[in-house]
Write a structure and sequence with these properties.
By secondary structure, the protein is of the alpha/beta class. The chain folds into two domains: 172 residues, Rossmann fold (3-Layer(aba) Sandwich), CATH 3.40.50; 199 residues, Dehydroquinate synthase-like - alpha domain (Dehydroquinate synthase-like, alpha domain, Up-down Bundle), CATH 1.20.1090. The chain contains 15 helices and eight strands. The strands form two sheets. Strands 1-8-5-4-2-3 form a six-stranded parallel beta sheet, with helices on both faces. A two-stranded antiparallel ribbon has the order 6-7. Helix 4 crosses helix 5, helix 7 runs antiparallel to helix 8 and helix 7 runs parallel beside helix 11. The longest helix has 22 residues. The structure holds 5,6-dihydroxy-NADP and zinc ion.
Length: 388
């Protein structure tokens, strides 16, 4: 049975090869000052920066830049952006990049007009903003996180070895997002595949919980099937527009709050992956891939019916004459083969984690209670060891 919920997503999305043409009108909705935020320089190499700054010039905006936002943006970098933004007083923060740049821009947006330390306030105490929030618009260059249409913001603090996500309310979500699949085509294959698995896992996190027959789970199954299909094509030919556009749109729907409505969700792969990320600074999607199978194989007996359904409805495995356990195992085996075929990292050692780190990574893993099995710390350690 679906529980009670309100569904409201305030982000306006422009999708497709011509979607940047909407930027001019959007800029008209905001004041003079635009804070342009981007990463380590990919947008300068692929021409996206030139296209966007041309529109900003055409609209005669006053622009200040925050560049060098790293993958897994840090609390230190956040303070740097907040300082620049406080002096500049932006009317709009324009994020151009992947999830890291979008997440970072949201974190800046809730911190510009707030005196507290943002790491402490939002990522340790999980408070909501009680100050004016600067509007954020995103121009996405990498498909994966769903940050373009959600309130999520994940920040890493290397001093305390923690990587923490805060899911902010509607008023922090991007006001608009521009998604041009062509912009994702210069991504290195490693990042493209990490993004694909991030999408897959967002769906799994919301699918593997609850026993009920509900609409969200059917939507999730459709999204997963489409993603798997498109992933094979994109890995073979990264320039295939159809596949890249389907992946980009699936990423948005995988984490724009829809499929979580009315049901419980798990998110333990993300908690494990984020803790691994806090110790290794590894690529987000790869940290998820590396812990997923040990985690799912461990919790499978507690949610056996759903894992059996996953095998049949997502991987097309015939149920004839098979027990739920047999089906569930075959489903995870099929996922493992797919993961290996598209080139994901299958263990945390390859990402730089060591046996000596397990204790610390386990300590940094936040235990959530929405999944089929609420883990004890020892079980977290076992899963991490099995992921080495
Ligand atoms: O910095 P640049 O030079 O732009 O390079 C980036 C970066 O090195 C590169 N890249 C992006 N677009 C490119 C490109 N290179 C060439 N061509 C392009 N078109 O890719 C690298 C990774 O980018 P990043 O933004 O870090 O990747 P992603 O989109 O996976 O974002 C990861 C961050 O998002 C958080 C993760 O924890 C991580 O910090 N997440 C955010 C979520 C949310 N808001 O809801 C949920 C997710 O589960 C996730 O936790
Ligand atoms: Zn993720």
């Amino acid at each position: 049975m679906l529980g009670n919920f309100t569904y409201h997503n305030p982000t306006k999305l422009y999708f497709g090869e011509d979607s940047l043409k909407n930027l001019k009108d959007e800029l008209g909705n905001y004041g003079q000052n635009v804070l342009l935020v981007y990463g380590g320089g990919s947008i300068k190499k692929n021409g996206v920066y030139d296209e966007i700054t041309a529109v900003l010039r055409e609209c005669a905006k006053t622009v200040t830049e925050v560049s060098g936002v790293m993958p897994n943006p840090t609390a230190t970098k956040l303070l740097e952006g907040v300082k620049i933004a406080r002096e500049f007083k932006p009317d709009l923060i324009l994020a151009v990049g992947g999830g890291s740049v979008c997440d970072y821009s949201k974190a800046v947006s809730v911190s510009v007009n707030c005196d507290d330390d943002p790491w402490e306030k939002y990522f340790m105490r999980f408070e909501e903003p009680d100050c004016e929030i600067v509007p954020v618009g995103c121009i996405l260059t990498m498909a994966g996180t769903g940050s373009e249409m959600n309130g999520g913001s994940v920040i890493t603090n290397h001093d305390v070895k923690l990587k923490i996500g805060h899911v902010f309310a509607d008023d922090v979500m991007p006001k608009f997002s521009i998604l041009n699949p062509r912009y994702t085509m210069t991504l290195p294959k490693y990042q493209m595949c990490a993004g694909i698995y991030d999408i897959m896992n967002h769906i799994c996190e919301q699918y593997f919980s609850g026993e009920d027959d509900n609409t969200s789970d059917y939507i999730s199954e459709g999204l997963m099937k489409g993603l798997i299909h498109a992933s094979y094509i994109a890995v073979k030919d990264p320039q295939d527009y159809e596949a890249r556009s389907n992946i980009m749109w699936t990423a948005t729907w995988a984490l724009n709050t829809l499929v979580a409505k009315g049901k419980s969700t798990d998110w333990m792969v993300h908690m494990l992956g984020q803790a691994v990320g806090a110790y290794t600074d590894a690529t987000h999607g790869m940290t998820l891939a590396a812990v997923s199978l040990p985690y799912y194989r461990y919790i499978m007996p507690y949610g056996i019916k759903k894992f059996a359904r996953f095998a049949v409805n997502v991987w097309g495995i015939s149920p004839d004459g098979k027990s739920d356990e047999q089906l569930a195992n075959e489903g995870l085996d099929a996922m493992e083969s797919w993961m290996k075929e598209i080139g994901l990292v299958m263990n945390i050692s390859e990402l730089g984690a060591t046996e000596e780190m397990i204790e610390g990574i386990a300590k940094a893993t936040i235990i959530l209670t929405g999944g089929y099995k609420v883990l004890e710390k020892d079980e977290v350690k076992k899963i991490l060891k099995d992921s080495l």
